[in-house]
Design a protein that fits this description.
Strand content: under 5%
Helix content: over 70%
Number of helices: 5
Oligomer: single chain
Shape: flat
Structural class: mainly alpha
Radius of gyration: 20 Å
């Protein structure tokens, strides 16, 4: 709960700050806070030992990348291309097929699929943070 309060107070502070100064100040302030948090994390949090040996998971990386491109490209370009255009609908369909296939892979075959559970747990947090930030930025 404290992390949520901290995040909300930082966002609200940024909204108030940008009303009185140039937006560049906001960017550099947040960049400085980010660097400070990274340095503190590296100093305070102990490094954990690797949990599983392995190298680059090429199949998982390519599958996830292709699926995300097929999903995010039509979201960003759908207004220009037309939401019912064949390329937009085709890329959305390809995203469903690729990401479904990627998620169905046996986790023992691809290390990237092991992170799928962590990814799914963090999506709710990311979406709620984006909604709260948007609401606070546009009162």
């Amino acid at each position: 709960m404290g992390a949520i309060a901290l995040g909300l107070s930082i966002m609200r502070g940024c909204v108030l700050l940008v009303e009185h100064v140039d937006w560049h100040v906001l960017f550099f302030t947040m960049a400085g806070i980010g660097l400070l948090v990274m340095a503190l994390t590296m100093w305070v949090v102990p490094q954990s030992p690797p949990s599983a040996p392995g190298g680059l998971d090429l199949l998982g990386a390519v599958g996830l990348s292709a699926g995300l491109v097929a999903l995010l490209l039509p979201i960003s370009k759908g207004g220009d291309w037309g939401w019912a255009s064949p390329i937009t609908l085709g890329l959305f369909s390809a995203a469903v097929v690729i990401l479904r296939s990627w998620g169905a892979l046996d986790p023992s075959q691809t290390a990237a699929a092991n992170g799928l559970n962590s990814l799914m747990r963090s999506i709710g947090t990311s979406v709620s943070s984006a909604v709260i930030g948007t609401v606070l930025a546009h009162p």
